[in-house]
Amino acid sequence: MNLDVLKKIAKQMVAPGKGIIAADESSGTCKKRFDAVGVECTEENRRLYRTMMFETPSLEQFVSGVILYDETIRQKGSDGTAVSEILSKKGILPGIKVDAGAKDLALHPDEKVTEGLDGLRERLAEYKGFGAKFAKWRAVITIGENIPSEACIFANAHALARYAALCQETDIVPIVEPEVLIDGDHTIERCYEVTETTLEEVFEELNREGVAPEGTILKASMVIAGKKSPKQSSVEEVAEATLRVLNATVPKNLAGVVFLSGGQGDEQATAHLNKMNQSGKQPWPLSFSYSRAIQNPVLKKWAENPAANVKAAQDTLLFRSKMNALATQGKYSDEMEKDRPY
Ligand code: 13P
């Protein structure tokens, strides 16, 4: 492990005024998103859609990195340039999702454990050859009656730590993502408790496995009431509770925190990040690593007419990326949405 290399990559990932686009949907998830907008989910359509995004002029102004899926990192743009090269030529870091998905946790109904450790050392070496500078592993924690169990939190935290150690061994920065799902009718207080327990366990396991916080990025879910909760959280409540849980659990020397959007609305996710960054200096940069909250309007625009709407879809991507980039500096306001190109 070369800590200087890891620190340099991590710093670039959360550079001021920039964030990460998650474009690492598995083919199954991608099918759901394409079905919803009436586009056939073929390998060629996935390639066209994603390379359209990556080729967006000036994307590097607001985007530091892109998380790719295994299929995508092996693909090429229409002029034959490898996807990771399309990105790195612009100064955008290519990243790669390396987990094999959340599977049912044995003896624990309704709970998941993320798999993918077998052969991971070899896969990381291959991805490094493709130009990957960072990786992502997503664990899923569900809130419900009597869940999450200790077993679920521990199994996921341990897997995240073993993944992160393997990444650092090969000088790839791990994004450690323990996602507490927004699904359900739980209160924001319950989300806080579960997030706190989960993050405590994750950082305990990372520490036990010898993972260096200075070369690690946390991808966190925000503390927020469940989607079906009768009492929805305000922007202020989400920002306050999320900052409180991070300050209570995250080592001060962690390289950075990026957020997932988790099913929040596009503008809502931007507003939450903005509010946090307006709430005084934190020990770590706070940025974004959204998939849906950035891509939803982009995919919609592109799907209307994939051949004719390339520029319109790219303008949409650039706009949402800019709004989120402004939010990393607390400089976003909802007034800016009136200039939306979509
Ligand atoms: P969402 O922003 O759509 O939650 O996706 C982020 C992500 O990468 C989940 O792993």
- Beta strands, count: 10
Mean pLDDT: 98
Number of separate domains? 1
The ordered H/E elements are HEHHEHHEEEHEHEHEHEHEHH
- Main sheet strand line-up: 1-2-3-6-7-8-9-10
Ends distance: 45 Å
CATH topology: TIM Barrel
The total count of helices amounts to: 12
What do you see in this structure?
Helix 7 packs across helix 8 (188-208), helix 9 packs across helix 10 (266-277) and helix 10 runs parallel beside helix 12. The chain is an alpha/beta fold and 342 residues long. The chain has helices spanning 3-13, 27-37, 43-54, 70-73, 83-89, 120-129, 150-169, 188-208, 235-249, 266-277, 292-304, 310-327; strands at residues 19-22, 63-68, 93-97, 102-104, 112-114, 134-141, 173-180, 217-220, 256-259, 286-290. An eight-stranded parallel barrel has the order 1-2-3-6-7-8-9-10, surrounded by seven helices. The protein has a two-stranded antiparallel ribbon with strand order 4-5. It has twelve helices and ten strands. The protein starts with a helix and ends in a 15-residue tail after the last helix. It has a single domain (3-339), classed as Aldolase class I (TIM Barrel). Helix 8 links the parallel strand 7 (173-180) and strand 8 (217-220). The protein binds 1,3-dihydroxyacetonephosphate. Residues 22, 138, 177, 260-262, 290-293 line the site of 1,3-dihydroxyacetonephosphate. 1,3-dihydroxyacetonephosphate is lined by residues 22, 138, 177, 260-262, 290-293.
